[in-house]
Structure formats: C-alpha cells, structure tokens
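User: For a benchmark we're assembling, each entry needs the component sequences followed by a predicted structure for the full assembly. Here are entry 17's components. Please fill in the structure.
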Amino acid sequence: MTLDHLDWPFFDAAHRALAGEADAWARANLQGIAHDDVDAACRGLVRALGQGGLLRWCVPAEFGGALPRLDSRALCLVRETLAYHDALADFAFAMQGLGSGAITLAGTREQKQAILPRVARGESIMAFALSEPQAGSDVGAMRCSARRDGAHWVLAGEKTWISNGGIADVYTVFARTDPAATGARGISAFTVPADAPGLRIAERIDVIAPHPLARVAFDDCRIPAAHLLGEEGAGFKLAMATLDIFRASVAAAAFGMARRAFAEALSFARERTMFGATLADQQMAQAKLADMTTAIDAAALLTYRAAWTRDVQQRRATREAAMAKMTATESAQQVIDAAVQLFGGRGVRRGEIVERLYREIRALRIYEGATEVQKLVIARDLLRS
Ligand code: COS
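Assistant: Structure for entry 17:
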C-alpha cells in the first residue's frame, strides 16, 4: 500500500510509524486467511489484532491502550490499512472500537477497568446495539425498554443489524428508560454480557459480504444496576458522540478499499494489451484512472480533516465526520465500480479482488448512518450555526 498521504500536515511522527506498522502487520498476518466460517474468522482476527497490538488504538492508555485518549487519526489510519488488505479484519478492528466507544466516553472507572483492557488484548468481543426493526435511521423511534427492578435493570425488546451479534462477549445496548419520553429523550445505555439471562440471538442475518450479524432479543433480560452506562436518559447523545468518532473511520475504511481497487486496476491497465497498446494507453481508461485517484484523495482529505479537527482542535466534528462518511463511501463505490469495469469480464469473476470489494463496499453507504442521514446531519449543523 502506498503511504504518500502521510506527508499531509494532519499527521505526526507517531501516526507515520503506526501506518507503517499496521501495513507490515497486515502483510504478514492477513494473506490468504480463510473467511468461509465468518464467526471463526472474526474470532481469530480479534485475537490476532489484540496480539499484534493494533487494538490498543481502540482504548485509552490508562486501560491498556496506546494513547491517553482515543485518537481519530490513528483509528482512521488503521482502518484504511486493514480495509486495503482485508475487509473482515477492518470489520473486526472497527467493532472493538465502536462496541467499546461508549464505555470509553462515559463508563465509570470500574466499568472501564472490567472491559477495556480485555478489548485491547482481543480477549473480549464487542458489539454496538442501537438499531431496531422499526428504528434504524430514526433512532428516536426506539422501542426496546429498560425498567429498574431493585438492584437490576430489566431489558425488553429487540435490536437488529447487530454486528458481532452471535459472537460478542459484551453488547453496548441502548434502551428507553423513560416510557413517557419520546424521540431522543429518555434513552439510556447499558453494557450487557452475552450470557445475561434473557439475551437471545433471535436470527442470524446473511448479507452480500458476510460478517457476523444478528437480530438480538431481550426477553426480560436482567442485568445488575451497575451496568448502566453514563447518565440515565443521556443515551441518545452518547450514541451520537460515539458515532461522531467512528463515522470518520468508516470513511477511512471506504477509501482504503477504494485504494486497493485502484491499485489493482492500475497494475492491470499497465499490463493488459488491446488495440495494439496497453489499456493504460487508452484515453478512456486514463480518464477513469484520473477520476478514481482524485476521488480517493478528496475522500481522504475530508476524512483526515474531520479526524484532525476532533483530535487537535478538540471540538465536536459532527459535520466534518458526516461529510467524510458520505463522500468517502459514495465515491468508493464509484471507484470500485470503475475498477470492475477496467477489469472487464474478469472484474465480475468470483475470487477477483475487485469483485470481492464490489460486494464489500456496499454496506458502508448504509451502516452507521446512511448517506441520507449524513445529509440531514450536515444540513442541521449548517442551519444551526
Ligand atoms: N453529539 C452530541 N449530542 C448530539 C449529537 C452529537 N453528535 N447529535 C445530536 N445530539 C443531541 C442534540 O443536540 C439534541 O440535544 P437537545 O435535545 O439537548 O437539543 C438531541 O441530541 C437530539 O438530537 P436531534 O433532535 O438531532 O435528534 P433526531 O431524533 O432528530 O435524530 C438523526 C437525528 C437522524 C441525525 C439521528 O437519529 C441519527 O444519526 N440517525 C442515524 C443513526 C445511525 O447511524 N444508525 C445506524 C446504527 S449504528 S450501525
């Protein structure tokens, strides 16, 4: 993977070292690993990422992590690199961060101590349970509830599209604790161990680029009162603040995949001959390659701007992260499609890297806030200021 963009002013020496290490680790550990059994593959990847030290970037230093606070640029660099090599490895890394992100942001010392070091070592698999059958984009329509019963909370309802559902050890679950409240109000967050009585995997969900995914039911699921995460009623804002960090990293994963498709297409175009010249000599192919590399750089610039804003300016970067997520996922889809086109028939043949990427990129335009939601977020922020 070329790392030319590390010369951009967003990064410091530690980022440059991390990107080199992540790339070397990926080359050494991700070649030819089987994905037939995604559960087994993901479990193995989480362990390997933990042993390789990469998951330290998902948690703060005090709890076994790399830096005092989560660094968005580091998360983006690791995701970009892993996604370039293996989208399932990127998924395994991202879910450790997203699933534990709310604990890092709002957990008590005890909660952090109990969970985060295990996340960093790859010993505890994490999930983020926000979406419901009737509440995906509209988080405020959430119905899953939690009521206090003495020393416990009792969760009732369903969550769906839960990544790592079925293999997670701990779920960060958002549920309505104030039945009288509507919309974004009256929602709270909880850490729920997978073996909590009443937590049930209701359905495993198969998608075009498989990864562990499930609908999870809470049948009067009892958890100790101490598992409440952050303030009661502040769960919606906690979910949004977590997404603010990880949406930029989805963008990084998207252009990591696009970079790989571009690298594959460029080397193919240089070798393939037609009409007495190489494909790269044909102006129509050149136009495609020019559009592809420009789209990748534009996406990367927006993404690292968002990450830098949060890390260095230390302010909320909701609008910047939404711009990055929207632009990078949409343009990566186009770049990968162009790569498939340049490959011709080979591009749609099972087993080709660009064919795999074509399937893998699609969900990124939907999860962690579909493109249409990012437009809403950008416009609201714009109109508020
Ligand atoms: N950080 C902190 N607080 C935030 C915030 C953020 N990024 N975004 C919103 N808030 C606050 C608002 O300031 C508002 O606070 P007050 O009530 O104190 O004014 C409150 O949260 C409610 O915000 P808003 O009115 O914008 O909520 P809506 O219900 O209209 O929802 C959208 C807004 C659509 C943007 C939100 O539901 C969303 O992001 N949906 C997509 C969710 C998603 O990504 N789903 C995928 C599941 S994760 S794989």
